[in-house]
TrEMBL record:
It comes from Clostridium luticellarii. This is Putative HTH-type transcriptional regulator YtcD. Keywords: DNA-binding, Transcription, Transcription regulation. One of its GO terms (molecular function) is DNA binding. It comes from the Bacteria. Residues 11-109 form the HTH hxlR-type domain. PANTHER family: TRANSCRIPTIONAL REGULATOR (PTHR33204:SF29), TRANSCRIPTIONAL REGULATOR, MARR FAMILY (PTHR33204). Pfam families: HxlR (PF01638). Signal peptide: none annotated.
Length: 113
């Protein structure tokens, strides 16, 4: 049993998937692994995500210490997102997942159109 932020998890995988799992978080982390991006830049890379959902996912990643949010004292406001040190430790894992997807597609070409 693992307790994190007042929630009990059965195992470390459950905790991990709670922090980085879902439809959008891995994709956000993947794009931020390349460089620092503004909200609008992330939105352009992910046209199917709503602004509300992107904001929620970024906030969750920030609260869990994976993403930095830097607000510039400018008008209009400029906000940039980047990976924290701990967020950067996920890059090799994300790369492995990407490689796995390519292998999976090659193995199952008849099912992947």
């Amino acid at each position: 049993m693992i307790k994190y932020k007042n929630t009990e998890y059965q195992c470390s995988m459950e905790l991990t998937l709670n922090i980085i799992g879902g439809k959008w978080k891995p994709i956000i982390l993947w794009y931020l692994s390349s460089n620092t991006l503004r909200f609008g830049e992330l939105k352009k890379k992910m046209p199917k995500i709503t602004q509300k959902m992107l904001a929620q996912q970024l906030k969750s990643l920030e609260e869990n210490g994976l993403v930095n949010r830097f607000v510039y004292n400018e008008i209009p406001p400029r906000v940039e997102y980047s990976l924290t040190y701990i967020g950067k430790t996920l890059i090799p894992i994300l790369e492995n997942l990407s490689e796995w997807a390519h292998e999976y597609i090659n193995t199952n070409k008849s099912q992947c159109l």
